[in-house]
């Protein structure tokens, strides 16, 4: 079992690599080799199998051809330009999120090895005229270029699978929170930083009201689901390989109360409530009445509570 | 008013050009110039304004840059590789239907002139797990690469419009029947040939049963709708620029009865009922319970009857 994580240097990629190192099997087979690839050389992980790290620019077909070999059995395609970044820099978003995805799928087709491809789509594909409640069979009407590029990726995953070029599966990720590390250029960044920074003793800005509702998943559960997602059999997935990954809907206020319950009252006092119109404009188009019917039936799960999510951060990530 | 028809050599493109020549205005302005562009030099039309014809390969950005100029006000993007062709030749389908569309939109973005772009999508975007009844807000779950490429085009039209790069509108065309001229490589070809050839005194093969239901529009109505589609104002269209074009659902048997009512019993006797599994496999995945809510509200229309449709063929197209 040879695994490649494209985006292996990111938060989810690194946590996925650490989990794979711990379980040492995927799809019922012992892992022989794991490659972490990213636009900058990713940090390696300690594992009971061979681990390589490599620089790969998915916008460059030649670079993709070096990363995906005839021996690659499972590809995690996590690499992406996130929402605010893709909104500001349209070219780079298209280059990575659309053409990068295409380059990966084309390489698989050229090889003819039909690898498993796990693609991370996003709840950013919902929006506009799509009717609530939202889920596996909702109309994608994204209100960001990032969401549009992810919606296109979903269609490509389905078509390359239908044609027998890959064995694909695409999961629309909820917003990942509490996301460790430094802020990225996602408009959803504050949905982690208002917990992460205060739990680390630092101040953070909340740019929306306490009643702002959104759909969340912890990094730990996300990685669990990505591993289950690779393990799913083609017959169980059926012809449509695109589905919502389970999450939970909470208000900012509920989440802060959960943090206070787990970590005491001090962190919440480090939050500055400063409206930011640019962020509000993007996130107000996002949706929260989301249901993960198919993935739930297939055994993927959400966090039981946001208290759990805070505990995961403290256990897994607090510096 | 300068108009470009990409796919100007095709059946719809030629009829659209003839209609534009007749009305001589679009979007409330006199037409000054019409360019018909296609992969082979298209036939010109007689018009009370300047008409140019040109060879344009939309898969080639340099070719697209020659066809779309700073003076181009309205672009009809009709050029496509049709369903069976794109299914047999995956590369060419992707090159024309996905990257060709991208090249056109990118040229518009580079120019910064925000032209009106009228894109023809297709009911082939419906399928699989999308629930009936189908329409503007249905989940696209295409079962052909052609349908996937059209669904991607819809997302790009919406995003390039949202970003202010174009003033786009995309219409999911019903199956066009009775389509004049020679058969093309669309799996839907028989849905025209079983009327066209018998009305011309020739035999034709019907590869499906008489109770096969499908969703149709005459070429005449399609062109009327494409002209109305260009005339629609951005404010009336709203943020979501993708919609179903009106059509009507009929069975093959009903359509043959309509032909007999208009043209007598002889044509129907020229139909050979020969099942074709390859065609059946594709068209059985197509859908017919389709409703064009938004376009109907905006004034686009379907044929009143298939009898009318037969009369249109006899009046407009019979050699």
Distance between the ends of chain A? 33 Å
Tell me the structural class of chain A.
alpha/beta
Principal-axes geometry of chain A comes out as globular
Identify low-pLDDT runs of chain A.
none
Relative strand content of chain A: 15-25%
Query: Helix coverage percent of residues of chain A?
Result: 40-55%
**What is the CATH level 1 assignment of the largest domain in chain A?**
Alpha Beta
User: What is the radius of gyration of chain A?
Assistant: 19 Å
Task: State the total count of DSSP E strands of chain A.
Answer: 14
Mean pLDDT of chain A equals: 96
- The helix/strand series of chain A, from N terminus to C terminus, equals EHEEEEHEHHEHEEHEEHHEEHEHHH
- Structure annotation, total helices of chain A: 12
Sequence-ordered SSE layout with sheet pairings:
The structure is a homodimer of 319-residue chains.
Chain A (H helix, E strand, L loop, with lengths): L1 E5 L4 H13 L1 E2 L2 E2 L2 E6 L11 E6 L5 H7 L6 E4 L5 H6 L1 H22 L4 E7 L22 H18 L4 E7 L1 E2 L13 H10 L4 E3 L6 E5 L1 H13 L2 H4 L4 E3 L3 E4 H12 L7 E3 L3 H7 L9 H5 L8 H11 L3
Parallel strand pairs in A: 1-4, 1-6, 4-5, 6-7, 7-8, 8-12, 9-11, 10-14
Antiparallel strand pairs in A: 2-3, 11-13
């Amino acid at each position: 079992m040879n695994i490649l994580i494209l985006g292996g240097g990111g938060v989810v990629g690194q946590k996925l690599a650490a989990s794979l190192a711990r379980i040492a099997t995927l799809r019922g087979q012992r892992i022989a080799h794991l490659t972490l690839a990213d636009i900058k050389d990713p940090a390696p992980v300690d594992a009971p199998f061979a681990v390589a790290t490599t620089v790969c620019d998915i916008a460059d077909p030649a670079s993709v051809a070096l990363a995906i070999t005839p021996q690659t059995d499972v590809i995690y395609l996590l690499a992406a330009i996130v929402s605010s970044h893709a909104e500001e820099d349209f070219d780079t978003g298209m280059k990575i999120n659309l053409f990068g995805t295409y380059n990966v799928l084309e390489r698989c087709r050229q090889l003819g090895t039909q690898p498993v491809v796990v693609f991370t789509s996003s709840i950013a594909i919902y929006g506009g005229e799509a009717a609530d409640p939202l889920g596996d069979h909702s109309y994608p009407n994204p209100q960001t270029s990032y969401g549009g590029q992810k919606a296109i990726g979903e269609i490509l995953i389905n078509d390359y699978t239908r044609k027998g070029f890959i064995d694909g599966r695409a999961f629309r990720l909820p917003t990942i929170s509490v996301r460790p590390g430094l802020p990225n250029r996602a408009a959803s960044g504050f949905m982690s930083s208002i917990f992460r920074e205060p739990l680390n003793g630092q101040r953070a800005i909340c740019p929306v009201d306490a009643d702002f509702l959104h759909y969340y998943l912890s990094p730990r559960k996300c990685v669990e689901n990505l591993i289950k997602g690779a393990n799913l059999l083609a017959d169980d997935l059926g012809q449509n390989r695109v589905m919502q990954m389970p999450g939970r809907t909470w208000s900012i206020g509920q989440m802060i109360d959960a943090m206070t319950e787990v970590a005491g009252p001090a962190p919440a006092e480090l939050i500055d409530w400063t409206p930011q119109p640019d962020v509000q404009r993007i996130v107000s188009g996002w949706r929260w009445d989301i249901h993960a019917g198919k993935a739930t039936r297939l055994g993927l799960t959400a966090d039981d509570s946001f208290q759990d999510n805070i505990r995961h951060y403290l256990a897994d990530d607090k510096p």
